[in-house]
Amino acid sequence: MAAAIAGGSGPVAVDAERASGFRYSQRAYLVQLRRAGAGSALVDPIPLRGELGPLAEALDGPEWVLHAASQDLPCLAELDLRPASLFDTELAGRLAGLPRVGLGPMVENLLGLGLEKGHGAADWSRRPLPEDWLVYAALDVEVLVDLRTVLTRMLDEQGKLDWARQEFEAVRTAPPSPPRAEPWRRTSGIHKVRRPRPLAAVRELWQARDSLAAERDIAPGRVLPDAAIVDAAVRNPDSPQALAELPVFRGRSQRRLARYWFDALRRAADLPETELPRGAATTDGPPPVARWADRDPDAAARLAAARAALATVSEQHDVPVENLLQPDLLRRVCWTPPTDGDLPAALAAGGARPWQVELLAPLLEPALATRAR
């Protein structure tokens, strides 16, 4: 198969299927490939870990065509499969101003074809994979190169092809996302927990769940739902038996783990005050935008003017605002404008691409001079 891919011509359509929602890991459980002259191929990477060298060599050179590449590149990199260049059809659709950029709608609108639906959220770690799942997976790469051809023409006609190439390269070379400092704070429903001691209970339960999920390679939400973590932290049961009376914990599997979860609650209860979590997460960025008007009215005025400028550019070029400039970067330069006045350098240092700097810096400079009335 690797020899066939290497002997083909043109770009290679690439896709990967994970088991999000079922497994703890984000590994690829299926890799789909298609290249002119080689046909389509489905690869089960699980029994081949460490043995994909011939495939990596065949794929090192041709342009890869992916849809929403940033979702698949990390799990493919775990297999030592990395593109030398890429074309992202979803990102291309955004830059081209398409109203719907899911693969199905784009294929239907631009190619006049309908993609079979129904297995995108399936448990791809299942073995053997059903035949209809394999057909579904293969269809995802059947039309990617044709879609690339149409999108390339659209972007070229709109004068955005160079923009797209810069965006694709930024996706390809993006470093791995750093781990979150306090990932437990993303527990759904945590806004109901305000005092430090119950917050510590959420943290201990989250960490206990994460350890168990990683050990069993099961999605954390399947080990214990977020709602159960918050409920236990708020109610603070005084024994494993009392914990087992709470919703979710009454189930057979959770009753068996009652002592495990209760021990996490006890660890939180025994922490000294100095080790309790703060009420709000620490951050190195600006405060929430809702507080700007009170804390720095001029910064709030700068942000409003900058957003208005971006909205105008978005309408003129038919590009979503979030694709014109990263929202976090916009907030940072509005909260703390560059002291040397070199906005283009500040945007570039924050990760803006050359086309974004060239297009936006002249419009944002007057916005950053805005003051509150």
Automatic annotation (TrEMBL):
Entry's Gene Ontology molecular function annotations: 3'-5' exonuclease activity; nucleic acid binding; nucleotide binding; ribonuclease D activity
Q: Name the GO terms of the biological process aspect.
A: nucleobase-containing compound metabolic process
Keywords, A to Z, come to: Hydrolase
Domain called HRDC: residue spans: 195-275
Q: Tell me, what's a Pfam family for it?
A: DNA_pol_A_exoN
Question: For this protein, what is the EC number?
Answer: 3.1.13.5
Question: How would you classify this enzyme at the top EC level?
Answer: hydrolase
What is the name attached to this protein's record? Ribonuclease D
Q: What organism does the record attribute this protein to?
A: Pseudonocardia alni (Amycolata alni)
What lineage is on file? Answer: Bacteria, Bacillati, Actinomycetota, Actinomycetes, Pseudonocardiales
